[in-house]
Amino acid sequence: MADREKDGKNYRRFLDPAVLAGIGRLELRAHQAVEGFLAGMHPSPFFGHSVEFVQHREYTTGDDIRHLDWKVWSKTDRFYIKQFEAETNLRCTLVVDVSESMAYGSGPLSKMQYAATAAASAAWLLLRQQDAVGMVTFDSSIRSIIPPRSQSRHLDAIVAALGNDRPREKTDIFGILKKVAQNLPTRGLVAIFSDLLVDRDALTKGLQMLRQRKHEVVLFHLMDKDEVDFQFMGPTRFEGMESMPELLCDPAALREGYLRELGEFLQEVRRAATKQGVSYQFIRTDEPLDAVLTRFLHQREAVRQGRPNLPG
Length: 312
Known about the structure:
The chain is α/β, with parallel strands linked by helices. The protein has two domains: about 1-35 and about 90-305, 3-Layer(aba) Sandwich (Rossmann fold), CATH 3.40.50.410; about 40-90, no CATH class. About 40% of the residues lie in helices and about 25% in strands. It contains ten helices and eleven strands. It has helices at about 1-15, 15-25, 70-75, 110-130, 155-165, 175-185, 200-210, 225-230, 250-275, 290-305, and strands at about 40-50, 50-60, 80-90, 90-95, 130-140, 140-150, 190-195, 215-225, 235-240, 245-250, 280-285. The strands form three sheets. Strands 6-5-4-7-8-11 form a six-stranded mixed sheet, with helices on both faces. A three-stranded antiparallel sheet has the order 1-3-2. The protein has a two-stranded antiparallel ribbon with strand order 9-10. Strand 5 and strand 6 (about 140-150) form a beta hairpin. Helix 6 (about 175-185) runs parallel beside helix 7 (about 200-210). The two termini are about 45 Å apart. Mean pLDDT is about 80; it is low at about 310.
Protein backbone atom coordinates (compact mmCIF):
# COMPACT_ATOMS: atom_id res chain seq x y z
CA MET A 1 0.00 0.00 0.00
CA ALA A 2 2.83 2.37 0.92
CA ASP A 3 4.61 1.70 -2.38
CA ARG A 4 1.42 2.40 -4.32
CA GLU A 5 0.94 5.72 -2.53
CA LYS A 6 4.58 6.61 -3.18
CA ASP A 7 4.20 5.84 -6.90
CA GLY A 8 1.08 7.98 -7.00
CA LYS A 9 2.98 10.91 -5.51
CA ASN A 10 5.76 10.45 -8.03
CA TYR A 11 3.23 10.57 -10.88
CA ARG A 12 1.86 13.84 -9.54
CA ARG A 13 5.40 15.23 -9.13
CA PHE A 14 6.80 14.29 -12.52
CA LEU A 15 3.81 14.12 -14.86
CA ASP A 16 2.27 17.56 -14.90
CA PRO A 17 -1.10 17.45 -16.76
CA ALA A 18 -0.43 20.91 -18.21
CA VAL A 19 2.85 19.73 -19.70
CA LEU A 20 1.31 16.58 -21.15
CA ALA A 21 -1.55 18.57 -22.65
CA GLY A 22 0.94 20.91 -24.30
CA ILE A 23 2.94 18.18 -26.01
CA GLY A 24 0.20 15.59 -26.52
CA ARG A 25 -0.37 16.33 -30.20
CA LEU A 26 3.28 16.41 -31.13
CA GLU A 27 5.47 13.57 -32.33
CA LEU A 28 9.09 12.93 -31.48
CA ARG A 29 10.80 11.58 -34.60
CA ALA A 30 14.39 10.48 -35.02
CA HIS A 31 16.56 12.58 -37.33
CA GLN A 32 18.62 9.64 -38.38
CA ALA A 33 18.03 5.95 -38.98
CA VAL A 34 17.27 3.91 -35.88
CA GLU A 35 16.95 0.24 -35.12
CA GLY A 36 13.92 -1.26 -33.45
CA PHE A 37 11.90 -4.37 -33.10
CA LEU A 38 8.31 -3.21 -33.68
CA ALA A 39 6.66 -1.53 -36.64
CA GLY A 40 6.60 2.21 -35.97
CA MET A 41 7.04 5.63 -37.48
CA HIS A 42 10.81 6.06 -37.72
CA PRO A 43 13.15 5.42 -40.69
CA SER A 44 15.20 2.24 -40.41
CA PRO A 45 18.76 1.69 -41.68
CA PHE A 46 17.63 -1.70 -42.97
CA PHE A 47 15.82 -2.34 -46.22
CA GLY A 48 12.57 -4.19 -45.88
CA HIS A 49 9.36 -4.29 -47.85
CA SER A 50 6.69 -2.77 -45.68
CA VAL A 51 6.39 0.97 -46.25
CA GLU A 52 7.92 3.02 -49.04
CA PHE A 53 9.80 2.26 -52.27
CA VAL A 54 13.37 3.56 -52.22
CA GLN A 55 15.42 2.17 -55.11
CA HIS A 56 16.23 -0.73 -57.46
CA ARG A 57 19.23 -3.01 -57.41
CA GLU A 58 20.23 -5.78 -59.75
CA TYR A 59 18.94 -9.26 -59.00
CA THR A 60 21.44 -11.71 -57.53
CA THR A 61 21.06 -15.45 -56.95
CA GLY A 62 19.06 -16.10 -53.80
CA ASP A 63 16.98 -12.92 -53.91
CA ASP A 64 13.26 -13.31 -53.35
CA ILE A 65 11.71 -13.27 -56.83
CA ARG A 66 8.50 -11.81 -55.36
CA HIS A 67 10.29 -8.46 -55.28
CA LEU A 68 11.32 -8.48 -58.94
CA ASP A 69 10.13 -5.43 -60.85
CA TRP A 70 8.55 -6.94 -63.98
CA LYS A 71 7.85 -3.56 -65.52
CA VAL A 72 11.53 -2.73 -65.51
CA TRP A 73 12.31 -6.20 -66.90
CA SER A 74 9.86 -5.65 -69.78
CA LYS A 75 11.69 -2.46 -70.75
CA THR A 76 15.31 -3.47 -70.13
CA ASP A 77 15.27 -7.28 -70.32
CA ARG A 78 17.20 -7.27 -67.03
CA PHE A 79 16.13 -8.34 -63.57
CA TYR A 80 15.93 -5.73 -60.81
CA ILE A 81 14.80 -6.09 -57.22
CA LYS A 82 12.61 -3.43 -55.62
CA GLN A 83 13.96 -2.17 -52.29
CA PHE A 84 11.73 -0.54 -49.74
CA GLU A 85 12.50 1.42 -46.63
CA ALA A 86 11.08 -0.33 -43.60
CA GLU A 87 9.94 1.71 -40.67
CA THR A 88 10.59 0.85 -37.09
CA ASN A 89 10.02 2.18 -33.62
CA LEU A 90 12.44 4.51 -31.92
CA ARG A 91 14.58 3.22 -29.07
CA CYS A 92 15.29 6.05 -26.66
CA THR A 93 17.46 6.04 -23.55
CA LEU A 94 16.93 8.86 -21.06
CA VAL A 95 20.14 9.64 -19.15
CA VAL A 96 19.39 11.73 -16.05
CA ASP A 97 22.01 13.40 -13.83
CA VAL A 98 21.15 13.01 -10.12
CA SER A 99 24.44 14.31 -8.71
CA GLU A 100 24.56 16.73 -5.79
CA SER A 101 24.73 19.92 -7.87
CA MET A 102 21.36 19.01 -9.42
CA ALA A 103 19.72 19.47 -6.02
CA TYR A 104 19.92 23.25 -6.28
CA GLY A 105 16.74 25.16 -6.97
CA SER A 106 15.57 28.70 -6.27
CA GLY A 107 12.04 28.11 -7.56
CA PRO A 108 9.36 25.45 -7.16
CA LEU A 109 11.56 22.80 -8.78
CA SER A 110 15.22 21.95 -8.29
CA LYS A 111 17.28 21.16 -11.35
CA MET A 112 16.90 17.47 -10.60
CA GLN A 113 13.11 17.71 -10.19
CA TYR A 114 12.86 19.67 -13.45
CA ALA A 115 15.04 17.08 -15.24
CA ALA A 116 12.94 14.24 -13.80
CA THR A 117 9.72 15.94 -14.92
CA ALA A 118 11.14 16.51 -18.41
CA ALA A 119 12.35 12.91 -18.66
CA ALA A 120 9.03 11.48 -17.42
CA SER A 121 7.10 13.66 -19.87
CA ALA A 122 9.32 12.55 -22.75
CA ALA A 123 8.84 8.91 -21.69
CA TRP A 124 5.07 9.38 -21.62
CA LEU A 125 5.11 10.85 -25.13
CA LEU A 126 7.38 8.14 -26.57
CA LEU A 127 5.42 5.27 -25.00
CA ARG A 128 2.24 6.83 -26.32
CA GLN A 129 3.79 6.45 -29.79
CA GLN A 130 4.65 2.81 -29.00
CA ASP A 131 8.36 3.61 -28.97
CA ALA A 132 10.76 1.83 -26.62
CA VAL A 133 12.08 3.90 -23.70
CA GLY A 134 14.78 3.09 -21.18
CA MET A 135 16.47 5.18 -18.53
CA VAL A 136 19.78 5.57 -16.70
CA THR A 137 20.26 7.77 -13.63
CA PHE A 138 23.78 8.63 -12.55
CA ASP A 139 26.18 10.62 -10.41
CA SER A 140 29.75 9.30 -10.02
CA SER A 141 28.35 5.90 -11.02
CA ILE A 142 25.17 4.52 -12.52
CA ARG A 143 22.44 4.61 -9.88
CA SER A 144 19.62 2.87 -11.73
CA ILE A 145 19.04 1.24 -15.11
CA ILE A 146 15.61 0.72 -16.64
CA PRO A 147 15.86 -1.38 -19.86
CA PRO A 148 13.96 -0.11 -22.92
CA ARG A 149 10.36 -1.28 -23.18
CA SER A 150 7.44 -0.09 -25.27
CA GLN A 151 4.47 -1.12 -23.09
CA SER A 152 2.55 1.78 -21.60
CA ARG A 153 2.85 0.33 -18.09
CA HIS A 154 6.64 0.69 -18.41
CA LEU A 155 6.14 4.32 -17.38
CA ASP A 156 5.56 3.04 -13.83
CA ALA A 157 9.14 1.75 -13.61
CA ILE A 158 10.61 4.97 -15.02
CA VAL A 159 8.67 7.23 -12.66
CA ALA A 160 9.47 4.99 -9.67
CA ALA A 161 13.20 5.12 -10.43
CA LEU A 162 13.13 8.90 -10.77
CA GLY A 163 11.36 9.16 -7.42
CA ASN A 164 13.89 6.96 -5.64
CA ASP A 165 17.00 8.92 -6.56
CA ARG A 166 18.40 11.46 -4.13
CA PRO A 167 21.23 13.78 -5.19
CA ARG A 168 24.67 12.81 -3.94
CA GLU A 169 28.30 12.85 -5.03
CA LYS A 170 29.87 14.43 -8.10
CA THR A 171 29.49 13.48 -11.75
CA ASP A 172 31.75 11.15 -13.74
CA ILE A 173 30.37 12.13 -17.14
CA PHE A 174 32.84 10.27 -19.35
CA GLY A 175 32.62 7.03 -17.37
CA ILE A 176 28.83 7.16 -17.47
CA LEU A 177 28.49 7.95 -21.18
CA LYS A 178 31.08 5.27 -21.98
CA LYS A 179 29.01 2.66 -20.12
CA VAL A 180 25.82 3.85 -21.79
CA ALA A 181 27.45 3.60 -25.23
CA GLN A 182 28.84 0.14 -24.51
CA ASN A 183 25.57 -1.25 -23.20
CA LEU A 184 23.18 -0.05 -25.89
CA PRO A 185 22.85 -2.98 -28.31
CA THR A 186 21.37 -0.97 -31.18
CA ARG A 187 21.51 2.59 -32.40
CA GLY A 188 18.83 4.98 -31.22
CA LEU A 189 18.23 8.26 -29.45
CA VAL A 190 20.09 9.16 -26.25
CA ALA A 191 18.65 12.14 -24.33
CA ILE A 192 20.90 13.53 -21.58
CA PHE A 193 19.52 15.77 -18.82
CA SER A 194 22.24 17.51 -16.77
CA ASP A 195 23.54 20.84 -15.50
CA LEU A 196 26.86 19.87 -17.15
CA LEU A 197 28.98 21.01 -14.22
CA VAL A 198 31.57 18.54 -15.42
CA ASP A 199 34.96 18.43 -17.05
CA ARG A 200 34.42 19.67 -20.62
CA ASP A 201 37.01 17.37 -22.19
CA ALA A 202 35.37 14.36 -20.51
CA LEU A 203 31.96 15.50 -21.78
CA THR A 204 33.27 15.90 -25.33
CA LYS A 205 34.85 12.43 -25.30
CA GLY A 206 31.64 10.90 -23.96
CA LEU A 207 29.50 12.55 -26.64
CA GLN A 208 32.00 11.55 -29.30
CA MET A 209 31.80 7.91 -28.22
CA LEU A 210 27.99 7.92 -28.49
CA ARG A 211 28.10 9.53 -31.93
CA GLN A 212 30.75 7.09 -33.16
CA ARG A 213 28.29 4.32 -32.36
CA LYS A 214 25.71 6.07 -34.56
CA HIS A 215 23.37 7.18 -31.78
CA GLU A 216 21.44 10.41 -32.14
CA VAL A 217 22.17 12.49 -29.05
CA VAL A 218 20.16 15.30 -27.50
CA LEU A 219 21.74 17.30 -24.69
CA PHE A 220 19.35 19.11 -22.35
CA HIS A 221 21.47 21.59 -20.40
CA LEU A 222 19.60 22.73 -17.28
CA MET A 223 20.50 25.72 -15.13
CA ASP A 224 18.66 27.55 -12.36
CA LYS A 225 17.84 31.23 -12.82
CA ASP A 226 20.19 32.09 -9.92
CA GLU A 227 23.03 30.42 -11.80
CA VAL A 228 22.17 32.28 -15.00
CA ASP A 229 21.37 35.75 -13.67
CA PHE A 230 23.49 35.81 -10.47
CA GLN A 231 21.28 38.47 -8.85
CA PHE A 232 22.41 37.86 -5.26
CA MET A 233 22.53 40.95 -3.05
CA GLY A 234 24.62 41.66 0.05
CA PRO A 235 27.14 39.40 1.77
CA THR A 236 26.27 35.82 0.83
CA ARG A 237 27.55 32.43 1.92
CA PHE A 238 27.66 29.97 -0.97
CA GLU A 239 27.58 26.34 0.10
CA GLY A 240 29.91 24.12 -1.86
CA MET A 241 28.47 21.10 -3.67
CA GLU A 242 30.26 18.02 -4.93
CA SER A 243 33.24 18.45 -2.55
CA MET A 244 33.61 22.20 -3.17
CA PRO A 245 34.30 24.45 -0.12
CA GLU A 246 31.99 27.19 1.20
CA LEU A 247 32.57 30.78 0.08
CA LEU A 248 31.55 33.98 1.89
CA CYS A 249 31.66 36.99 -0.42
CA ASP A 250 29.95 40.06 -1.86
CA PRO A 251 28.33 38.67 -5.04
CA ALA A 252 27.94 42.14 -6.59
CA ALA A 253 31.72 42.37 -6.82
CA LEU A 254 31.88 39.01 -8.57
CA ARG A 255 28.89 39.32 -10.91
CA GLU A 256 30.64 40.81 -13.96
CA GLY A 257 33.42 38.23 -13.92
CA TYR A 258 30.98 35.40 -13.17
CA LEU A 259 28.71 36.27 -16.10
CA ARG A 260 31.70 36.53 -18.42
CA GLU A 261 32.92 33.08 -17.36
CA LEU A 262 29.39 31.69 -17.64
CA GLY A 263 29.04 33.01 -21.19
CA GLU A 264 32.33 31.38 -22.18
CA PHE A 265 31.27 28.13 -20.51
CA LEU A 266 27.93 28.02 -22.36
CA GLN A 267 29.58 28.86 -25.66
CA GLU A 268 32.18 26.13 -25.15
CA VAL A 269 29.57 23.50 -24.31
CA ARG A 270 27.37 24.45 -27.27
CA ARG A 271 30.37 24.42 -29.62
CA ALA A 272 31.48 20.99 -28.38
CA ALA A 273 27.96 19.59 -28.87
CA THR A 274 27.62 21.08 -32.36
CA LYS A 275 31.03 19.73 -33.39
CA GLN A 276 29.91 16.21 -32.44
CA GLY A 277 26.57 16.54 -34.24
CA VAL A 278 24.67 16.65 -30.95
CA SER A 279 21.42 18.61 -30.59
CA TYR A 280 21.95 21.11 -27.75
CA GLN A 281 19.04 22.55 -25.78
CA PHE A 282 19.72 25.15 -23.07
CA ILE A 283 16.96 25.26 -20.44
CA ARG A 284 16.35 27.61 -17.54
CA THR A 285 14.38 25.85 -14.85
CA ASP A 286 12.05 28.84 -14.52
CA GLU A 287 10.83 28.23 -18.09
CA PRO A 288 7.48 26.41 -18.47
CA LEU A 289 8.38 22.84 -19.36
CA ASP A 290 5.60 22.42 -21.92
CA ALA A 291 6.94 25.44 -23.83
CA VAL A 292 10.48 24.03 -23.71
CA LEU A 293 9.44 20.60 -24.99
CA THR A 294 7.13 22.03 -27.64
CA ARG A 295 9.89 24.29 -28.97
CA PHE A 296 12.29 21.37 -29.04
CA LEU A 297 9.87 19.07 -30.88
CA HIS A 298 9.00 21.75 -33.44
CA GLN A 299 12.71 22.38 -34.07
CA ARG A 300 13.33 18.68 -34.63
CA GLU A 301 10.38 18.42 -37.00
CA ALA A 302 11.64 21.43 -38.95
CA VAL A 303 15.07 19.84 -39.34
CA ARG A 304 13.54 16.48 -40.28
CA GLN A 305 11.56 18.14 -43.08
CA GLY A 306 14.51 20.19 -44.28
CA ARG A 307 13.17 23.54 -43.11
CA PRO A 308 15.34 26.10 -41.32
CA ASN A 309 15.49 25.79 -37.55
CA LEU A 310 12.91 27.79 -35.65
CA PRO A 311 14.24 30.41 -33.24
CA GLY A 312 14.59 29.37 -29.64
